[in-house]
Amino acid sequence: MSALPPDPVAGEAAVSEDSSVCTPEHCFHAFDALYCALTGRDLISPAFADKAYPLFVTWNARSSRPGRPPRLRGCIGNFDPLPLREGIAEYALTSAFKDSRFNKIEEHELPSLECGISLLTHFEDAATYLDWTIGKHGIYISFPDPALYPTSRSSSNTPSPFSSSLFLPRFTSRRTLTATYLPDVIPEQGWSKIEAVESAIRKAGWSGSVTEDTRRSVKLRRYQSVKCVVGWNDFVQWRKAKGDDKI
């Protein structure tokens, strides 16, 4: 993952957020990469345009019990714009096999899986850590490690969201902690903005107290995403339509 999200993808700054941006074909390509890696089958060449986007691939395991939400099984991506054909295949496997929070996905799990592709757009620097909209924006935070660069409330000159300052705090820490949440995660968790930022601070690796001064040290970059999700049965039908009668 890149250290800091880039500016909007060249040529895509005004992209409309509709179903034509991220399609089931993108998800099928991710599923195909995982299926072929686990079974030794041949990858089907994708038909979608090979544009470049920052992207995330999410694997969820659907519950066999009615009414239970899917369980996260892996989610990793990259903030650097990647050609979609290569980038989706790469991060389909990275999120399936290298997400340190989970064991590697195995072949027997395939029928329970669903795949989500998130293509990221509209990156903007936020004026303060509260300058974003729940349900619309994802957040990427970076801040100096408080353990190495302690501050006090009385001496901090970083802007508060409740002040009139429009300038982001600047810091030169040699160790910067970072974390991100995709746009759909925050409403799913039911967090307020402050709760989401504090959770991101914890996710970044800080286990000490989180004060207003800690939050004010955060540089927040907001972004949007276009997402599509398909399940295993959808993928099987797609693969059969492409000529695979053995799946």
TrEMBL record:
<dbReference type="Pfam" id="PF01871">
    <property type="entry name" value="AMMECR1"/>
</dbReference>
<feature type="domain" description="AMMECR1">
    <location>
        <begin position="15"/>
        <end position="239"/>
    </location>
</feature>
<dbReference type="InterPro" id="IPR023473">
    <property type="entry name" value="AMMECR1"/>
</dbReference>
<dbReference type="InterPro" id="IPR027485">
    <property type="entry name" value="AMMECR1_N"/>
</dbReference>
<protein>
    <recommendedName>
        <fullName>AMMECR1 domain-containing protein</fullName>
    </recommendedName>
</protein>
<dbReference type="InterPro" id="IPR036071">
    <property type="entry name" value="AMMECR1_dom_sf"/>
</dbReference>
<dbReference type="InterPro" id="IPR002733">
    <property type="entry name" value="AMMECR1_domain"/>
</dbReference>
